[in-house]
Amino acid sequence: MAILRSTDSSSFIYLKPAHIFGRDPNTADQLLFDTACSRLHCVIRWQGNCWVLTDESRNGCYINGTPTKRGQTVRLKLGDIFAPSKSSQPQWQLEDDSEPTPVIITTCGSRLIKLSSFNLLPNEHTPICQLTQKNHQWYFEQGHDSVEISEGFIFDMAGQHWRFYPNYVVQETEVFEDNSTPMLIFDVSQNQEHIGLSMNIDGRNIEFGYKAHHQFLLEMAKHKLEFNSEKDAGWMSNDLLMHNLGIDINYLNIQIYRIRDAIKKYSPYWAQHLIERRRGEVRLSGCEIKIHQ
Question: Where is each FHA domain found (predicted)?
């Protein structure tokens, strides 16, 4: 995520994919107070593989001391210094020109954490919550709750307030719908202490080996086979799942994170869609199941 830092090093700006500078508090991401600046002064945006500035002002902007004209678009390079007007202070230097990425930032702006599709926060060893992406929708999962969130969502973590920014940019690697039906194949030892898992997607067999979190998947798979009626649709309560496995809600959330993360490198779509959650419940979705004992 790109950063503009003031030339006196007193402050910095994390750039959104389209970051508006201006004097209008209703539209500006970065509010300007210089009367030489316009209500919509300029926009810095990610375009293709670089950051560009488009001048929308009456009086122009300045890049490395060179003025721009209204309607002009200028490519920004690492180290460039941007001033909204000739007399503006502070001026801003492009310190980081990396592409936009989903992030959470403390409300005071002191810390930033970049996000992937599945995030156990603040870390896997002391998890408090999860942030997960399904298609273009993000979800905040904590305890038994799973809620849809959007830009600006604020939550508490480790004694600090954090704000969420999805920073959507259309990527060539966008996850498209997968119309195949995955088959989960469990290889269960007689005493059920060792559980192997493979996944067949469109004739491609993926081996996941023997992992502790396969017990969690097996429990849901058994429930789906037994209760996959129209009424139940395979939903299983978190409480029942935790009781059967002898775990708490934090460990349950860790298991879900590990499963999604393991599947992601083989099928980003099914990493997002195989496990569905709603308040107090979880289920396996869109898959077929075989259990070999």
Answer: 19-68
| Domains of the chain, residue spans | 3-96, 103-165, 183-292
Whether the model clears a pTM of 0.90, i.e. scores above it, the answer is: no
CB 122 within 8 A of CB 158: yes
User: pLDDT of 150-186, one tens digit each?
Assistant: 999 999 998 999 999 999 874 444 455 667 899 999 9
Q: Are 67 and 45 in contact (CB under 8 A)?
A: no
DSSP state of 191: T
Which residues lie closer than 8 Å to 271 by C-beta, 6 or more apart? 117, 118, 260, 261, 263, 264
Q: Could you report the per-residue pLDDT of 11-44, keeping only the tens digit for each?
A: 899 999 999 999 999 889 999 999 999 999 999 9
User: In the CATH hierarchy, which fold is given to the domain comprising 3-96?
Assistant: Tumour Suppressor Smad4 (2.60.200)
| Contacting residues for 61 by C-beta, under 8 A, at least 6 apart | 41, 42, 53, 55, 67, 68, 82, 83, 84, 85
Q: Report the C-alpha gap between 23 and 202 in whole angstroms.
A: 54
What's the rounded Cα separation, in Å, for the pair 131 and 137? Answer: 11
Coil, strand, or helix at residue 253?
helix
8-state DSSP, 23: S
d(CA 276, CA 262): 16
Q: What are the start-end ranges of the H helices in 11-93?
A: none
> Rg of the Cα trace of the chain?
24
Q: Read off the amino acid at residue 62.
A: Y
Distance from C-alpha of 61 to C-alpha of 15, rounded to nearest angstrom: 17
